[in-house]
Amino acid sequence: MQKCDVLIIGGGVAGLMAGIELARNGKKVILLEKEGVVGGQCKTEELYTNGETYRFDYGGHRFITNNEVLLSFVEEVLGDDLLFAQRSSVILHQDRVYEYPLNLKNLFSVAPFKLLFGASIDTLKIIFKMVNPDDSSFKSWISSRFGKTLYDNFFGPYTKKLWGIEPDKLSADWAGQRISLLDLKDVAKKLLFKNKKTARTYAKSYRYPKFGFGGLPKKMAKKFEALGGEIFVNEGVESFIYSDNKIETVKTQTKSFHAQNIISTMPLNEMSKQLGFESGLKFRSLRFLCIGLDIEDFSPHTWQYVSDYDLLPTRIQEPKRRSESMAPQGKSSIMLEIPCNKGDEIWDMNEDELLAIVKKDLSRLKFDIEDKIVDYFSFTTEHAYTLMDIEYSEKRDKTIEYLNQFDNLIMAGRQGTFRYIFLDTAMETGLMAAQKILDDESHSRLNIYNHRNEKTVIETKSVA
Ligand SMILES: Cc1cc2nc3c(=O)[nH]c(=O)nc-3n(C[C@H](O)[C@H](O)[C@H](O)COP(=O)(O)OP(=O)(O)OC[C@H]3O[C@@H](n4cnc5c(N)ncnc54)[C@H](O)[C@@H]3O)c2cc1C
Asked: E strands along 164-300, which residues?
């Protein structure tokens, strides 16, 4: 049995952040990571081929934060490797390319008349309050604020593809948190008057590590170990010995640990299951198809959203648009994000078959990469997105209430709190968990679960 003051479960950025803060304050800390390397969803995978390296994050990442202390920390950890980058996005929809954020000139030159006409009628209905906001599901939230035309054309099909369930079974929380404009009126005002006051929109500039986001957790792990922290990789937690209000022992396949306090960033549903409670909470998974290309540039865009339901990927991203070092000199690459569930047809499909489908999709989108492919591979992440179905909030509350009976347990991180949060917020929850152990009065556990639970993610306040 190994003993320590604090045991951290999960070596993503949240767990590492907690570890650094605790070790810095003299605690004996052990961190257990299920995989062979730390980083979690913040890793960077490499495709080494013909003596050259292509790099791919777990989906397109960028660092934005409004926390100057956190930014300084990341700057200190990454040093000169932390670059500035600019985002450029487009939406691909039914053979047309829309600039994002939308602008009037592009919209009028690209959108078909039927769509513009329908959206204009919907805007009038919203201005004259002929429809009232309805928050009962994602579908009703969008339709009542953005109209049926945009719902049927963009939001509905894209959302169904992303989540794998009908949008009327999805919670309105998802829309409220992720869509930066209020309603069609707000869109019209922004398009017509470029009114800055209406802007609850996204950050164009962001920070990015030179060799991909995986550089951050790698360097955080080094810092943690330099402060005396111990990391065990390939040690997934498999069970607990617990009493009514305390976790006594944490067990992996080969080892047992005893700690005064435990910070867990493993998925909330798996944690509660191992402690005797079936939460019913689910995650949506992603499969990433990564293709090294023998071309200088694929496109000028960081992200291209693929809204058509019958095309597999939801996004195409070109890692080189974030940092030149993500592809060999003179070459580029693309990553396709394909939503799926663990064990379904997409998850299990062999790579050649997946590539064949994606090549067809790309040629429908007028991208011909047939003779340009150098090499390709794919990887998956099971817990990409917290599935915010209609009942998720109630299920999450019950799970939190159950886990709160264990006095020596603090949940943190994206999976641990079951929230769609970015890495800056995940790091903040790790830090808060550590601060709570160092000073019990500093935060409540509920605070950590709900940290930055604003209705909307306001990216424009980013200082990064
Ligand atoms: C497609 C995609 C795009 C994203 N884009 C951005 C972006 O642009 N900007 C941004 O800021 N954020 C982005 N994020 C979010 C960001 O990656 C996460 O918020 C952050 O990495 C979460 O860190 P974490 O430590 O909370 O969780 P994780 O990284 O998931 O870490 C949890 C760790 O726990 C380990 N673990 C699980 N079970 C066990 C167990 N039983 N025992 C031991 N260890 C276990 C896992 O292996 C993992 O390493 C994106 C995420 C995805 C999926």
From this structure: 205-209, 230-232, 239-242, 247-251, 256-264, 283-293
- Which atom of ligand 1 is closest in space to residue 17's alpha carbon? 25
Whether the predicted model's global pTM rises above the 0.70 cut? yes
Q: Ligand 1: residues whose CB is within 6 Å?
A: 9-15, 32-35, 40-42, 58-63, 236-237, 265-266, 286, 381, 384, 413-415, 421-424, 426
CATH topology assigned to domain 102-198: protoporphyrinogen ix oxidase, domain 3 (1.10.3110)
| Mean pLDDT, contiguous 10-residue spans, the chain (464 residues) | 97 98 98 98 97 95 92 96 91 90 79 90 82 87 87 91 95 76 72 56 82 97 98 98 95 97 98 98 98 97 94 96 97 98 97 97 94 97 96 97 97 96 96 97 94 66 63
Residue 271 C-alpha to ligand 1 middle, in angstroms?
Answer: 15
SS3 call for 267: coil
Query: What is the Å distance from ligand 1's center to 15 Cα?
Result: 10
Separation CA 266–CA 252 (nearest Å): 13
Classify the phi-psi angles of 427: left when phi > 0, otherwise alpha if psi is within -120 to 50, otherwise beta. Answer: alpha
Best residue among 232, 317, 336, 414 to mutate for probing ligand 1, ranked by most atoms within 8 Å of CB: 414
Give backbone dihedrals phi and psi of 335, rounded to 5 degrees, phi first: -125, 130
Domains 2-40+212-282+389-461 and 102-198 share a fold: no
User: What's residue 442's pLDDT?
Assistant: 93
Q: Which CATH superfamily is domain 2-40+212-282+389-461 in?
A: FAD/NAD(P)-binding domain (3.50.50.60)
Which residue from 9, 57, 61, 381 has its CB within 8 A of the most atoms of ligand 1, so it is best to mutate?
Answer: 61
SS3 percent helix, strand, coil of the chain, rounded to 5, is 40, 25, 35
- pLDDT of res. 274: 98
